[in-house]
Here is the input.
Amino acid sequence: MKGFKNVVYMSLAVGMLFYSIPQLQFRELGSLPMIFSVIWLVMALLIIAAHLHQILGVDEEKRQQQLRINRMKKWQMEQLVQGRRKLLQFRK
Here is the structure.
């Protein structure tokens, strides 16, 4: 479901880009409409690139590694808490 959502959003961004390119103004160098057009184009391309990055799953290995680290930290915390319980029981 997550990948499908990224495909839909990327498709909408590409459609928006194709619709808007003929209406953007790139003629007068340094004018406000041209600056807006360049900034808008860069933002649209960044959005498309971000969704493509998610679709291709570039960070999947990194996410798996982070999940393993979080599991290990949780296990270590559980071991620490269990050890303290044993110490408290021994002191009584």
User: Anything to note?
Assistant: The longest helix spans residues 60-91.
